[in-house]
Each structure stands twice: as structure tokens, then as C-alpha cells.
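Quick one: C-alpha cells for this chain, please?
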Amino acid sequence: MTPQLTAQEALIYVMVTVAAADREITAVELQRIGSMVNDLPVFRETDGDWLVREAQDCGKVLCKPDGVRRVLALVGEGLPPHLRETAYALAAEVAASDLTVKDAEMDFLEMLADELGLDELICAALERGAQARHRTD
């Protein structure tokens, strides 16, 4: 049995999984994940080594049969209610970071919203905000 994730671990799992949804994690996505971990207060007590370990642990779960569903279940258990919208916002940010939100990333965002019980209008607003921040022209 896998131990429950901390809130910070769950947030990393969300970002790594959305980045990996299309089977290719881009350098831009990795850079965006790293910058959010460095900048956001929720990650204040973490360091770069921790991020690498958590990303690798997430990858191990994703490689198992039904890995995405396992990640979603772990995230749902590990996230307190007040960080559920934050998790979705971070996932939307990573998905938008390489300027194209792919179908596989949208599918994961939908599954995440369902797992976390988020309102679809809130999700749409979070997605729209993330896409607006990453527009180039």
C-alpha cells in the first residue's frame, strides 16, 4: 500500500502527470514546474532535490498499470480541500506553458476536476487565466 501524499507531494504529482499526459515532458514544462516550486508559498519548505525525488516517484506510479488513476486517487487523498483549486490551477499552468494545450492534457484536467469535485466554471476560469499568461501575441 502506498502511503498518503503530503499536500506538496500531491501538487507535484498533478504537475508532473499533466506534463506527461502527452507522453512527452518538454523543457518548458519542466522549467515552469521548477519556477512555481521556487516561487509559490505552498512550496516554501522544499528544495530542488526534493522536487526531483517527487517527480521520479510520480513517474514510477505513472508507469504502473492504471498509473494515471492511481495518481488521481493519491492526489485526492493527499490534498486538503483548500488546495484543490490550487492543484487545478498549477496543472492548467503547466499544460499552457508550452503554448499548446494538447487533448491528452485536457483529458487529464477533466479527470482531475472530477477527482477533486471542482466546479466546471471555476476550472474554465483557471484554464483561461493560465492560457492568457502564456500567450505570446
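The chain has one domain: 7-133.
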